[in-house]
Design goal:
Elements (H helix, E strand, L loop, with lengths): L1 E4 L3 H6 L1 H13 L3 E3 L9 H5 L3 H14 L5 E4 L2 H10 L7 H13 E3 H8 L8 E8 L3 H7 L4 H6 L3 E5 L15 H4 L1 H17 L4 E4 L2 H13 L5 E4 H5 L3
Parallel strand pairs: 1-2, 1-3, 3-4, 5-6, 5-7, 7-8
Amino acid sequence: MEVDLFIPCFVDQLTPETGENLIKILKHVGCETHYNPKQTCCGQPQFNSGYTKETQEIAHKFMKDFEGERMIVSPGGSCTGFIKRRYASLFDEAAEKQQAESLSNRIYDICDFLVNVMKVTDLGATFNAKVTVHDSCSALREYGMVTEPRTLLSNVKGLEIVEMEESTTCCGFGGTFSIKQKDISSAMVEQKVRFALETGAEYITGTEYSCLMNMKAYIDRNNLPIKVIHIVDILANF
C-alpha cells in the first residue's frame, strides 16, 4: 500500500525523529511512503482562534498538497481530528466541500491506521519500562480514538501500562488556551503530572506531542523523575 505522510508542525519542528520513526513503522508493515515537502500547517490554530478566512486559505493549500487518492497517515490525533471533523464545514461550494470530505475520509492517525486499516496490533517492539497513558482531548473527543493506543502498547514486550487517575482529563495545553489562561493551564498540568507520578511510571506516553510537550515543560522546570515519549517512538523499537 502507498500512503502519504502528514507531519504536524510540532513534530516537524521539535521531534523530527518521531516523523522518521513513523516512516520506519509504515515500512515495517509493508507501506510505501510519500512525503510532500511543501506541506505546512493544517490550520487548526487559526480555526481555534476564530480566524475562519485564514483557516480556509490554509485548508485550500493543504488539500492541494494532498491531492490524489492515497491514504494519509500522521503521528498526531489533534491535527487529523481537526481535518476529519472540521474541514468540510469550512466551505460552502459543493466542489470544495466534496474535496474536503474526500480528504477527511483518507486521513488517519497512525494508531487507528495500524489497528483498523492494516489490522496490525503487534509490531514486535520492545520497551522495558512502566508507562502511563495520557488520552489527548483532541484525539479522544475530536478524532474519536479510544482503544487503539493501548491495544498497540499492550503488545510491546517489556512494557507495563500503569493507568493514571483521570487519564482522559485535559493536560492544560489546549493550544492558545495555555497562553490566554496561563494560571488555569498551569494548575491543570500540575495535576496531570502529579497523577502520572503517583502511578510510579517512568514515562508518560500519548498520541499527541503538543500535550507531551506541555507536560515535559512542567517536568523539566520542576526536575521531576518522569519522562515523556510519543507512542510512535515506543512502537518503533523493533
